[in-house]
Design brief:
- By secondary structure, this protein is mainly alpha-helical.
- The protein folds into two domains: 100 residues, 2-Layer Sandwich (GMP Synthetase, Chain A, domain 3); 134 residues, no CATH class.
- The chain is built from eleven helices and three strands.
- Helix 6 packs parallel to helix 11 and helix 8 runs antiparallel to helix 10.
- It is elongated and about 85 Å long.
- The chain starts with 10 loop residues before the first helix and ends with a helix.
């Protein structure tokens, strides 16, 4: 046992070697399933002979294969004999007589990364009515609110010398961000204005000093933008409380959406 290194090889190099070996032996379809995957080689101090291995003194080792989402079903559908081929070749490639690591188990999971995120499937209840128009309106609302936050943040930053923001707003945002940052949660937005409410954004934009020196150029008449934002807020309330909106409200919301987005992105 003292001759064993008990050290796992570099995971990326090992997987590349496994894919190359599969191709060389004519198992190209199996190899293709593993292309783009990641792997981990993990072991404990449990003897491999207790998990079906044959090498005395070797540790039981697991090869964890993380498969790209678009290939995961193919990996799951591999016949047992093909999975056994992966296991057998992996074990040989690991050189158990040198490393003292004998692969006794191979697992398959979905690779999750920034380039390959899981897309959550929406849950549908038979007791809840789903309305495509309302779903579309929610998407517009998400876009509008966050575009408006970004616009306000940018213009306030460009005009710090003259911009006026209620100190209570800032306290609210800092409190909300701090609360969201408490473990195990993690905030995704760094700019605290993204913790603002729609009403706070409306008041920042229409505050007389901010309006005259910053926002009038983009929105035109103050009374008109106040009216539009108030109307948006009324429909927003319906969406925020997950109620279905009428076609009339949707048409009104879409018209207002187009006008406001034209002002801030035009």
């Amino acid at each position: 046992m003292s001759e064993f290194t008990y050290k796992a090889p570099n995971a990326d190099g090992f997987l590349n070697g496994l894919i190359a070996t599969l191709n060389a032996k004519g198992f190209d379809k199996i190899a293709n399933v593993l292309v783009g995957s990641k792997c981990k080689i993990t072991f404990t101090d449990r003897w491999s002979t207790k998990d079906g291995g044959s090498l005395f003194g070797a540790f039981s080792t697991t090869l964890e294969l993380e498969i790209p989402a678009n290939k995961y079903q193919d990996a799951e559908k591999l016949p047992d004999e093909q999975k056994e081929i992966i296991k057998k070749l992996s074990c040989e490639l690991l050189h158990p007589k040198t490393t003292g690591l004998e692969i006794t188990n191979v697992t398959y999971t979905v690779l999750i990364s920034d380039d390959n995120p899981l897309t959550p499937e929406p849950y549908r209840s038979k007791n809840v009515q789903y309305d495509p128009t309302t779903e579309c309106a929610r998407s517009l609302l998400y876009t509008l609110e966050n575009a408006l936050r970004y616009f306000v943040a940018t213009k306030i930053n460009e005009n710090q010398a003259v911009a006026v923001i209620d100190s209570d707003f800032i306290k609210d945002w800092e409190h909300a961000k701090h609360k969201e940052a408490l473990p195990p949660r993690k905030p995704l937005d760094s700019n605290i204005i993204f913790y603002s409410s729609f009403e706070q954004l409306r008041r920042i934009i229409t505050q007389n000093n901010n309006w005259d020196k910053i926002f009038k150029t983009y929105f035109g008449r103050q009374t008109s933008v106040i009216s539009r934002l108030n109307e948006l807020d009324e429909i927003r309330d319906t969406l925020a409380h997950n109620r279905i909106i009428s076609q009339f409200d949707y048409n009104s919301f879409k018209s207002l959406f187009d006008v406001i987005m034209g002002c801030i992105e035009g």
